What we know:
With 90 residues, this protein is α+β, with helices and mostly antiparallel strands. It has helices at residues 8-20, 37-41, 43-54; strands spanning 2-4, 29-32, 71-72, 75-76. It contains three helices and four strands.
Amino acid sequence: MFVSGDDTGAKKAVTALLVSFGWPEASVLDLGDITSARGAEMLLPIWLRLYGALGHGDFNFHVQGARSGGQARGRPTVHRHLPRTRPAWR
């Protein structure tokens, strides 16, 4: 899950909320200030295409660090599956 924004406290609150939903904290990536949100928003078009191709929304993206030793920004690479939730509209 990506978080972006200019308010550090708000990003911490969102991260805590995501962790309370079951997301591993190491899977929440802070992309920086609010200008980085535009890039994350552009995942929606590919998500919609995947939804159309697969016929369901039971999938997710995974960011894999390529640094030696499985480390990305000093954190271990997470290989666990994220919580499988279905949208309320299904």
